[in-house]
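Appendix B. One record, verbatim.
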Amino acid sequence: MAKKFFKTTIIIMAAVMALALCVALFGAPAAVTDDFAYVADVYGGTEAADLWYYGRDALDVYGAKEVVDGWKSELDATKPIVIAVVDTGLTVNHEIFKDVLLKNSSGQVLGDNSTVPDSGGEVDIGDESSGKHGNHVAGVIAMLIHEFELENYIKIYPIKASVKKNVDGTQQEAFSIESVSEAIRRANSKVNADIINLSLGRSYADTTAWADNTQLQYTVNSAIESSFIVAAAGNNGKRASLPREDGAFYPAALDGVFGVMGYDKNGRLWNGSNYGTLYDIAAPSDTIYSAAGVYGASGYSNDDGTSMAAPFASFAAALLKLRLRLEGEECDPHILSRYMRSFAFDNVTYDGTQINLLDLKTLVTQDLADVEPNYNDPTGIAISHDAALGSGDYADCIYYSDPRSVPKISLIARLTPFGQTDPDLDSSIRWSLIDSDGNETPLGEGRSISFTPTVFGDSRIVAKLSYASAVRGEQKMHIEYLTFFAGNAKVTYEGDVRDLKNAPTSGVLYTGETTVFSFVGEPYMDPHVKIKWYVNGQFAAEGRTFAFKPEKAGNYVIGMQYGVSAPTLLPGVAFEAKVKPFILRPLDLSMLIVGCALALFAVVTVVIIALKRKNLKAEQN
């Protein structure tokens, strides 16, 4: 018995030693690890399980996946979440993008190129950039879609927005304000993208153009009604708590855009990331593994930067939107913004600023009731528009030099801070136009309006809350008055003042009859400038119009003087009137002829009757 026991013990010890040796040589089986309860996919020879940012102390991808797996029986594959990736394009046949790109009913991959006119047909969306930036950014999202096995529920829509540009003899890829604005517009209007990822932009320290561009602001404000916009905070390593500071990176610094900072594998702010209260959250940006495309369809590489942090937040927003749909909650961009900012993620403090770190497990598990449902009172109203701006003294004004060709202007008001105010308050916004004399003209109500200006010179477009007029926003406007010269001024009948080409400058008038004159261009002239009227070179009156009532027949020249200019009495500019007696008016003359004819008829009739009576009396005698 003792011999058998000894033999069994030897066998068990050998088995334990063999197991220990296997572990030492090959590592423990993945199924028993703490962080990864699922077998991770392999990308270019690298297991996703080996990526530091998928671990429990970072995004906790596999902890979140356990929760999301329970959703799949209820998710709707007919209405996938669409993430538009505005970047340098992507390599469609790269293995990482298999089954995650948005396609049409014929199975063709959908995408766009905002650097070329919108033809509605197929366009080049390939990533030809030297660093394959678009591949890497979109690849971050694609890997997460695969890891969560959400290929049927989250799709990527690529928009190529970069152009190659010669700089000092070398070619560089560049994003322009115009191409980025157009990309946002197309993502919003063509596929109604749920999320728009912008791993791009420019620092305010480098250029003010992106911060001040009204086209970009108007496009963003239009899009955020239905699309959640995520943007990288930039890699200048500078702080920004307010717009227009050196660390402000646009478009991430725009109110309404979800700005993403970066954190490193030690859970600290990545040393290249811009940071501060101007931005919203931090996501992994250190040694991020994704599609590179440099080596063909299977290329992968590591990269750093907030460009790589932004797509983590874009995927998180898509995940949150799936959750809100399942729970029957509203999930428009205002709501997404509020939840994304309010969930209790891990956080770190850097340079006195508390920075929230993105954590996917918290995103899918935290009770929505923990997020305060109360909105904050609005602090102001930001106005954006699609109009042209001036320069110099009029750099912050809607500006047009010719009042005769002012287009219809569209404006959008946004209560600030975005995502923290009740969107129902939009209906309480009242718009008005205030001219330089303080006269106020109502323009409409609601979040947006369109109108064609008819008040020129200096004016202000004002948006304010009906119940709290102190909450307001203003946009200055300056439309030049028409410059006075003979070529754009004709004295004519008042009803013809807008028709320069066909306005008559001569005509027949009649004594005792009043005719009102004005001049072509008068509605576009400065109303504060005095206008004097002359008849045959003699001063006759002052005012915007002139009522002329001639007493005598004859020829008259009706001219005018604008401001300090010389009286305008030139033929074809001044009005040449031939005045005839009142009785000779066509209507009066006709009536006179008819009257004379009737009188003559009456006389003839009386004479005939008298003669007949005389003849009758003679016959009777």
